[in-house]
User: Fold this.
Amino acid sequence: MTQALFDARNIARSYGGVTALNNVSFAVFEGEIVGLIGPNGSGKTTLFNCLLGQLRADGGTVRLRGRDVTGWRANALARAGLGRTFQLLQVFGGLSVRDNLIVAAQEHIATLARRLFAPRTLGLDEQVEAALERFRLTALGDAPAASLSYGQQKLLDLAMALMAEPDIVFLDEPAGGVTPSMLDEIGEILLTLNRVTGTTFAIIEHNMDFIMELSDRVVVLAEGEVLTSGTPEEVRGDERVIEAYLGG
Amino acid sequence: MNAQGFKRLALAAILAVAILAPLGLKNYGVYLLSLWALYAIAAQGLNLTLGYAGQISLAQAAFFGIGAYISALATTAGMSFWLALPLAGLACFIIGALIGFPALRVQHHYLAFVTLGFNVLVFLVLRNEEWLTGGTYGVANIPRPALFGLSLGGPLAFYYLCLALLVLMTAMFWHIVRSPWGRAFAALRDNPERAASLGISIVTYTLLAFAIGSAAAGIAGAAFAPLVEYIDPTPFTLSLSLAFLLMVVVGGQGTLTGPFIGAALVTLLPEWLRWTEGYYLMVYALAVMVLMVVCPSGLTGLFDMARRRWERSP
Ligand SMILES: Nc1ncnc2c1ncn2[C@@H]1O[C@H](COP(=O)(O)OP(=O)(O)OP(=O)(O)O)[C@@H](O)[C@H]1O
Ligand SMILES: [Mg+2]
Assistant:
């Protein structure tokens, strides 16, 4: 079996006395789109936060390309090639759209000292313009991010997660609160990136149609444990999955 | 005119006024202007820490004091001022970075208390460690420097030294806030969690914000010592830290011109209000209260409002 690009084993986490994650293992292979689904409160966001350094796990190991990255800080993981978005969209409202995109990639360029004396855009101009175009934000490049509509901010949020060209991108509900037409657009962008650029994705989503169509493989979380995983078809037909959603 | 052009014009106007202002003033007036320039440097530093990086500090006077004592002790011992000045900046840069560590754990009013504690600590060291600082006797006969054999001993010459320092430091801050560092500071202030997820090191930039801000206070303090020629611990108490905070907030935090205006108000306004006799502090306090309620973004915010209104009118 090939080595997983990203391999988390036995991740545990509790809040006070409440167990949010009970020995969850979660692997992602190069080039995959993995869906992570589960009822509200099943621990999906907690898992992402433990994997990406926002939360400290109580136990477990995380490997990236076989390298042990357990306990690394979020910024170190980002620089090692992990990108992400958050469940609640998070752009820097006071910065312009362009600056949001640049700041999303700048720490991957040169050293700290060199960045102080580097040109303002750090040579990212082309990449920024390409991102603006891809997410149809070109006309808004100089506007403060806070002035954008929710949908546009959601696109910007996604564009930021992709700016540093991460090896694997974790998205927490990219379809949340998005209009149907924009949903198609986001799905298309993700597929293109996956098929053309080879970007690997792990995506938390409640929108079943969206995630089932996009994913190569789906992992189901329920009450802090992996209930099952398989192809979208397998998971769709699984009695336990239906029960977990209805029973929750 | 766009906001950028307006900013440049404002800075140029301030510089022109600052160059011409001392001409025709008596010694005391020139002294006040020098004090303004040095306070503005320290306020610029705090403005980076607070206004751009979003970290409160009530220890700016401590760094001003540390810079002043390093400069005073070094130059009275025979070291050149031109060596003592960067030395004071470097020392405060390092101590400032150390003071940044608590900011990695606590924020807002907790951080205010931590930095306040540091200010008290430094004051006590300055007062009690007589062998080093001269205690309450202070350090006297602090020499004023010369530059290329040109004495900067006169009030006017020394003022222009302070002003040159201010211009230099402002240019440095202008560069920093417009550089990728400035963008990282802004991102961190806005949303540390998101910033970290994009590879921005909270540790590095928080410590940097404190270190740079403190270094500015150290450099200002280093020039303050020869300005007053005699120092003791009294100026470097919490009330000066609060005054620096006031300069930044009243001037308009997160703007380059704010600290100039804030420092001018805090240094000069009490003098101009002297004709109100015993009431000047009250008038002053009231004016600050009104300003903060009407325009929390400070005086530069007020000017911005006026500019936009003026642009809209035909
Ligand atoms: N900061 C917190 N403090 C205490 N309990 C928390 C905290 N965050 C999450 N929890 C609890 O941990 C469990 C898992 O929450 P989590 O947010 O990971 O679920 P989720 O699968 O992402 O849910 P959703 O689909 O609603 O986003 C829930 O029971 C939740 O109440
Ligand atoms: Mg969630």
Summary: The mean pLDDT of chain B is 91. Chain B has one domain: 3-312. The two ends of chain B are 14 Å apart (CA to CA). The interface with chain A takes residues 175-176, 178-181, 183-184, 186-187, 190-191, 193-204 of chain B (CB under 8 Å).
